[in-house]
Design brief:
It contains twelve helices and eleven strands. By secondary structure, it is α/β, with parallel strands linked by helices. The radius of gyration is 25 Å and the shape is elongated.
């Protein structure tokens, strides 16, 4: 970075400040360019010019997106209110329809639980763009500005993202009634429940059996030593296969509550300390320029408190 004698004279250009605030809010040059309807090279050039004028770097460049440095956070805090007011006067604020809210997370949780909770917001003009996937790729895309909010199955590391606990999901061991009855009829010579289950077909989400292996370690204090009979990369498909009699599985309780209530599935074990996984609602630090992102976030957190 240049020394103080080479700093630009006069106040920073207003367009540079607007671009800076967009980059700070989105965490990405690419996302800021999309929001401002500029080319990415233009955004990059404006940020570099502003950094040259101020005599300090504002963002730490990373492979996916940027992270504001402390000076950038201070500058954004000073600029946010006056620039937002100026945008309102210019007709680019609340009078203009906000951009869609880009929400991402596990397909099963989004489709089974969250979209129903968010449905009332569409009457108020909220537009949703929903993407599904695994936590690590979605968090990388969040850092790059592709999403506004991500439901993650683990808390992200570091300070580049802000995470709040959303819900706890309890894992349950289940099978269709025929297999449950057969297991209930086993005698002492057949061994404990884990041994009996390892001789039966397992339906799983993936080949490495992440959910079932965790259940085995947490509840039975042993390693699961089987291969899946069926793998389906969607837990709703796992529910369907197990309900049809393909084998046993471990599922989040919310996903099979209706089947357990109706008797289509049976609970095979009631541990005193069932394994629990916490879902987190994650976003980039700082306030969003889109008021509908705030509405979606507050709605999700409010509904989660009732679960």
């Amino acid at each position: 970075m240049s020394d103080r004698n080479s700093h630009g004279s006069g106040p920073p250009d207003l367009n540079q400040l607007r671009t800076f605030l967009a980059v700070h809010r989105t965490g990405s040059f690419t996302a800021a360019a999309r929001r401002l309807r500029l080319s990415q090279p233009t955004v990059t050039a404006q940020i570099r010019a502003l950094e040259e004028r101020l005599g300090r770097e504002l963002f730490e460049r990373r492979a996916r997106g940027v992270v504001p440095l402390p000076h950038a956070d201070e500058l954004a805090a000073r600029l946010a209110e006056p620039l937002d007011r100026l945008a309102d006067v210019a007709g680019a604020g609340p009078d203009r329809a906000p951009e869609p809210v880009h929400l991402a997370g596990p397909a099963e949780f989004l489709c089974t639980v969250l979209l129903g909770a968010l449905a009332p917001l569409t009457a108020g003009g909220v537009r949703l763009r929903v993407a599904t996937g695994l936590t690590d790729p979605l968090l990388a895309e969040l850092r790059a500005g592709r999403h506004d909010l991500v439901v993650a199955t683990r808390r992200p590391r570091g300070r580049a993202l802000h995470a709040e606990p959303l819900s706890d999901e309890e894992f349950v061991l289940v099978a269709a009634p025929a297999l449950a009855d057969r297991l209930a009829d086993l005698g002492p010579a057949d061994g404990p429940l884990p041994d009996a289950l390892e001789r039966e077909p397992l339906v799983a989400y993936a080949e490495d059996l992440p959910i079932a292996r965790r259940y085995w370690r947490h509840v039975f204090d042993r390693r699961l030593q089987v291969q899946a009979a069926v793998t389906v990369p969607d837990l709703r498909g796992v529910v369907a296969a197990v309900t049809a009699g393909a084998g046993w599985t471990v599922l989040p309780g919310y996903l099979c509550r209706a089947e357990l209530d109706s008797g289509a599935l049976r609970l095979l074990h009631r541990p005193e300390d069932p394994p629990i996984n916490t879902a987190y609602l994650v976003q980039r630090p700082g306030p969003s320029a889109n008021p509908h992102v705030v509405l979606v976030r507050e709605r999700l957190l409010a509904v989660a408190r009732t679960w």
